[in-house]
Design brief:
Four copies of one chain form a homotetramer. Chain A is an alpha+beta fold. Chain A has two helices and six strands, in the order E-H-E-E-E-E-E-H. The longest helix of chain A is centred in the N-terminal third of the chain and has 19 residues.
Chain lengths: ~150, ~150, ~150, ~150
Amino acid sequence: MTSPKTEYRLPFVTEMEIRFGDADAIGHVNNVAFFRFLEQGRVHFMKAGKGNLSGSGIRDFPYVVAHSELDFVAPLAYDDIVVITMGIGRIGGSSFVFDYELFSKRSGVMAAKGNVVMVCFDHDNNRSMPIPEEFRSTLKEYLTDPV
Amino acid sequence: MTSPKTEYRLPFVTEMEIRFGDADAIGHVNNVAFFRFLEQGRVHFMKAGKGNLSGSGIRDFPYVVAHSELDFVAPLAYDDIVVITMGIGRIGGSSFVFDYELFSKRSGVMAAKGNVVMVCFDHDNNRSMPIPEEFRSTLKEYLTDPV
Amino acid sequence: MTSPKTEYRLPFVTEMEIRFGDADAIGHVNNVAFFRFLEQGRVHFMKAGKGNLSGSGIRDFPYVVAHSELDFVAPLAYDDIVVITMGIGRIGGSSFVFDYELFSKRSGVMAAKGNVVMVCFDHDNNRSMPIPEEFRSTLKEYLTDPV
Amino acid sequence: MTSPKTEYRLPFVTEMEIRFGDADAIGHVNNVAFFRFLEQGRVHFMKAGKGNLSGSGIRDFPYVVAHSELDFVAPLAYDDIVVITMGIGRIGGSSFVFDYELFSKRSGVMAAKGNVVMVCFDHDNNRSMPIPEEFRSTLKEYLTDPV
């Protein structure tokens, strides 16, 4: 077994338990579940970064997903832990990009990599809005280093 | 806020992260997700109790669910942690019962209680089988105290 | 192969496609997915019965699940269609019971049976409320025949 | 209301019911559920195209997902039907590409578009394999017209 990885390229690192229910009939974690991991990684990031996410209120989540993509590199088992590493790849006026690299905690092997484009969104008025300044500062702290 | 509960009636206690994706359009954790929590609690129990669950092999999970029920007592928020407490309510020849009480970690409030009847199952021959003796011993260590 | 069943004990009959994602690593439809079928059966019932469910508004779904239980009788394959049959088992002041029997469309075999207790709920004031009269009339049309 | 669309750019057209459980706490179909729609669209395609998918056997699904991406164009409601349109964007030696455009059946509006790269995979020997000739012929019938 490869020894677990302790250094990651992307600056925000979080972990989550894989569930038995994330696997499919092939026996590995289903490709759709990986996108659930991305989403939950964002919840961790928002909580850590105070992204206007005050808790259980729906309106406190002023973001929508505009684009999402992943390369699937290696399978994950349902009884492993996924290490979700994230960085901010680009910051625009109302949109920003999360870069992602996901790893098996057990083996240290990369399982998937990709990115998600988020747009700040005013749910009440149903339109995009500029990134709030305080959140923009948070995003800048997590910029992905150029390769 | 109620102070978090530190003592539980049922002897096996484990925790898991609730995911944003466990909530539904009403804004609370969906009733179906609670049954996912029960399943993942069983994975924790099997890992802790060495229930012939050697890892990723499908045949190493020689159990099927025969019955499952829950009373929903109080809602859970998606950004809470669910405390899953479990005990063994009955041990038969090939079947046994998991008692469950689920709590909000944040508030200590009970969210749901119920039970699941499991049957030891020989997937290769497609029939029930007696509880393996070693596993029976494990089950006995976690018997639910009478109320 | 048993010929498909054309008569059912419970008066409301609906169907839904099983998804590949409803199966788990054992290769059958996961027990948790069955509770998803119950929920979607209720959506079909509400749409057919005009249960104050006007469409996409969350407040138009004035019900919560108080109890849910299933006996798992036979496995379902992910490429089958599930026939969800439902009846109203009891009507109280603010609560009522859905009886359920689920079948494989392909084989006609019963896959699961159980019931769900619903409570009419005023989400705005966070408390139960009496069953609206118009909906009570609808429920009466679907009473389960005594066995 | 826009009248439903009856012509689509991509040659394979299928539909599926959106479930209440596909929505999230924001009230729309969750972005992760869209990738579930892509997967189920592939199941429909494989069944229609005889893609070596003989039914419930896991080994009969000799494909893995190598890449998946979507642009999210407009929200979907949980009580709508999603029209999944698909074409084959590229056929290589062992890989091929599904192009996707997803629509709301109710409004005819495009909800998402993207593509998924599949690799033919020999699960028994854990390696990619050439596209079987019979399946290659099927794929050619569904090539995406150039824009």
